[in-house]
Amino acid sequence: MAKRRYLAGAGLILAVAAAAIAVWMTRRAGVEDAPREPPQQAQEAEMREQPARPKSVFDSPLAGRWYPASPPVLTEMLDQQLAAAEQTPVDGVCALILPHAGYQYSGPAAAYGLKAVRNRRYARIVILGPSHRVPLRGCASVPEATHYRTPLGEIPLDVTFIEALLEHGMFRRVAQVEDLEHSVQIEVPLIQHALGATPLVPVVVGHLTLDEAREMARVLRGLLDADTLVIVSSDFTHYGPNYGYVPFEEDVPANLERLDMAAWNAIEAKEPGVFETWVKDSGATVCGTCPILVLLSMLPEDARPQLLKYDTSGAITGDYENSVSYLCIAFTGAWREGGLMSDTAAALPLSQEDKERLLRLARETLRTCVAEGRTPTPEELGVEITPAMQQTMGAFVTLHAHGRLRGCIGEIEPRWPLYQAVMANAINAGLKDYRFPSVTADELPELDFQISALTPPQPVDGPERIVIGRHGMTVEKGGRRAVFLPQVAPEQGWDRDTTLNHLCMKAGLPPDAWRQGAAFTVFEAVVFGEEQG
Fold first, then answer.
1. Domain residue spans of the chain
2. What sign has the CA pseudo-torsion 92, 97, 102, 108?
3. Cα atoms in the Cβ-side hemisphere of radius 13 Å centred on 460
4. In degrees, to the nearest 5, what angle opens at C-alpha 444 toward C-alphas 438 and 447?
5. CATH code for the part of the protein at 352-529
6. Rounded Cα–Cα distance for residues 335 and 482 (Å)
7. What pLDDT digit, counting tens, does each position of 217-271 carry?
8. Superfamily for 51-332?
9. In DSSP terms, which residues pair with 129 in a beta bridge?
10. pTM of the complete model
11. Could you tell me whether strands 147-150 and 57-59 are parallel, antiparallel, or unpaired per DSSP bridges?
12. Among residues 220, 371, 522, 523, which is most buried (max CB within 10 A)?
């Protein structure tokens, strides 16, 4: 509903908006050859089409502390930094990671990213930054204002997009966030100088689990379109006693670069679990970890990351006792409208050959990861990827050893092509299921692989709508949530009430918590596995 309301917009008084809505409606009716507005005209229309809300301007408190308060002085600084950036335009940039320190430190690195997109016009820019000072857990904060103001003037916020976000419980308006948090606002003068008054969607992201990051990504990507730029605001390694992180004391510049390039390699993999694992294993203080996880969880399938610039405050000041690292990263690709909000099941059935290919892909991916510590490509495994395997679907991979569960991890929400979900969750089930030790090479021949390819989850009015043997299900109450695949209840011989009792206990709730005040979704699955003697 949020997607439809957002796409419709609020500007019915403008003819161009009416035309855009007509195109959308005819597409919903199946008319594929309806004409579209040129992107530039669509952008100009959306920039004019802000809802009729009373104007409310938030004055950013960063001027004079994080960058010059004088407009001429700030403009001259940004001119010099952009001129010094040896960066040519990059076609098709859909996302950037930019640093967020004071401009004298991180401005030169950030300039590379802004210079890469300076010739591009966007309809809106979504900025995701971490919350340094206000504790936020499992949620993000968006502003009440309709405009931001910096020394370079006012810039509108895309209030329609923001209102659409607020229809989802993870997005809220949290008091004091705007007054105390700099990570999003620090990017605004850079945007104004390089890209003009493009409407903004400021989002301050709290602490998230990986599942929460993926859910936030699902909501955001459902509202994005090809004319959106996403900016993640993050610094990287915070080194030195001031930050409580001194993993080495010798050859600090080279060791810092080695550490930061490992972070870049984890981001380049485009797998949020890989980056999360690197952060935990390294202990590095990457302040924008959660916004980066959100970005990696929603990137278009064709996204290609590019490292544009690497720098450190130590290199700038010549003092490495305490140093902060800055990476400027661009992602090329195209956001697909409603990419994570589909409410339809897979259109192409999986053939027996498709199922055999996916099972082979799961087994050989885990084998390669265990033996070599890397994720192989389908091509090197000799597995052909068919159109049915490229459908965006949720998937679980389950491992059994001698008839007993050995690992099971997956995703309910359709987020990426099925074959990619299978590869990622084969590794997750074998190496990242906290209930079991990691699978070893000696165990692999004894494992049976099972794949569950899922239809998108749908909310239901109550537990009486759940059909045991057909439906997988989730229960959610009081911020706790758990899932069972469709095969769990039949395998255990449970009826519906018993299944829901166990599901609530899995979520950390009392067994009968499902009887009042709980929310349910259901989904179906195509389940198939290996047959071994």
1. 2-40, 51-332, 352-529
2. negative
3. 17
4. 95
5. 3.30.700.20
6. 30
7. 988 988 999 999 999 999 999 999 999 999 999 999 999 999 999 999 999 988 8
8. LigB-like (3.40.830.10)
9. 204
10. 0.58
11. parallel
12. 220
